[in-house]
């Protein structure tokens, strides 16, 4: 009986380190897809916002989970989190496209 291999995940929290990793391996990214999304985790009374990016590189999920910050639920626009989030999303999208990747929503897991 053979076991299916468990996919490995390499995690980053710093967008610049993640981008550096993508640049090193951009020719080996499966199907040339970079997935980028925003994750909101609700825990009364706060919401924590993170930008998540994933790419599959030869069976390994390479993941960025960059915490933007937290705010009272419903108050994330008033304290600048939306702007900070958009800056990171734009940077990842720009780099992905420059590397010839198809930038899509969602997360590889």
What does this structure look like?
- The chain has 109 residues and is α/β, with parallel strands linked by helices.
- Strand 2 (33-43) and strand 3 (46-57) form a beta hairpin.
- The protein has a single domain, classed as Signal recognition particle alu RNA binding heterodimer, srp9/1 (2-Layer Sandwich).
- The radius of gyration is 15 Å and the shape is globular.
- It is 27% helix and 40% strand.
- It has two helices and five strands, in the order E-H-E-E-E-H-E.
- The protein has a five-stranded mixed β-sheet with strand order 1-4-3-2-5, covered by helices on one side.
Q: Indicate the structural class.
A: alpha/beta
CATH topology: Signal recognition particle alu RNA binding heterodimer, srp9/1
CATH class label: Alpha Beta
Strand content: 35-45%
Mean pLDDT: 92
- Strand neighbour order, sheet with most strands: 1-4-3-2-5
For the secondary structure, the number of strands is 5
* Low-pLDDT stretches: none
Sheet with the most strands, sense and barrel status: 5 strands, mixed
Q: Can you tell me the number of structural domains?
A: 1
Helix content: 25-40%
